[in-house]
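## retry 2 of 3
previous attempt timed out at serialization; input unchanged, resubmitting
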Amino acid sequence: MQRLNRISLTQRLTLMFVAATTAVLLVLGWVVTTSVEQHFVDLDMEVLTGKMELIRQSLQSVTSPDGLIAFAHQLARSLVGHPGLEVVVMDADHNIIFATAHANFSPDLLLSSAAQVPAKPAVWQLGAQSYRGIAMRLPTAALDSAGHPVSVIVAAATDMAHHQMFVRSFMQTLWLFVVVASGISGVLGWLAVRRGLAPLRAMREQAHAVTAQQLHQRLPVDSVPPELADLARSLNEMLARLEQAFARLTDFSSDIAHELRTPVSNLMTQTQVALSQARSADAYRDILASNAEELERMARMISDMLLLAKADNGLVVPHAETIDLADEVRALFDYYDAVAEDKGLQLKLEGIAQVQADRLMLRRALGNLLSNAVRHASPETVVQVTLNHCAEAVSIAVANHGETLAQDVLDRVFDRFFRGDPSRHRDQEGAGLGLAITRSIVTAHGGSLQARSVDGLTTFTVTLPRVAQAGQAKRD
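## retry succeeded, writing output
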């Protein structure tokens, strides 16, 4: 099997084509040979049955046992000019009445052949010669002492040497034709396969041109045969996914550099300033406190990126327990109540539901959604959390009134480090990972997360199965 796998597709198809052609030629040769042999049998039987009918008619002139002698002389004269035809006539006592020169056939063979009704052709071997013949018991016009017709056994055979020579010559010619035709079909098959697989070679050459810097190239679909069109489309779709993945990876790397550059720069600047001259203990304490804040920010960011990396590889496995969602939302309301009061927001909960999920992970996801809603809600409005449940799933909708989000923003709102504000100012809270983490947590629970913004009302809806489905995290 390994040796077969090393054979190229061109060689495989060529070998299959040659094998199929050879098999067809062999079957055709067998059919022709069988037809030729049957044709010779029919010709021989036509001659033999004609002679048998002639002998049958001649036996009707034999009216007495002594008349068989005259019959033998008459039969000898009638066979003049028939080379290769041998005839034997035996009486009831198995005595040979008449026999041609080379008809030294075994009496037992003649008797067994004559016993077959109807008469069937048999092949008789006599030395180096082969004969095809028939034997029949034929009545005469003479009657025995009991009044029954006297019968004789007549055998007629024809030499098969000419036919056998023709068949041997035909078989040699046929085998030579099969060998030559197989060779020619192999060459023609190889050329046909090479031409037929030309689109594959073209696709291979175009695929060689695809690199990490040229993922925008696509394989032609319209210029390939229909059998390869699906393959070309699948490869193009794969290239599109790779291009998107590389683009996300490039953006992710840029975002990481952008997010880490400022805190690292702040740490370096503050440290260099602190080291530039002697300062008091309080001054050093203030600098260290400021550095600690930057380090905590970086630690949170690294922790969030680690969580996202685990979610991308399906390593986030929730620990399921029964959770009352209404209680969790009220606890989050208590946490964000002070911020909401500063903006004049009203936090409102509607509905009840229970779900099996990881409590800490789900609390973090809901906290991210509620924090996002409070941060972007217009002052003096309501932040609404609505719980709905059915037999198999529950939904959690977090809605806030504020600026209507454009569709391109909604399409990217769950991307890492994405902020609706293109300027991406550092004064914005968080690193832009909250919604990405929320989606990863929801996906790890086998759920889904959608965003919708219409007429100033932005709603994030989480749908979770009521029974935990851990380990279903998928890559973004």
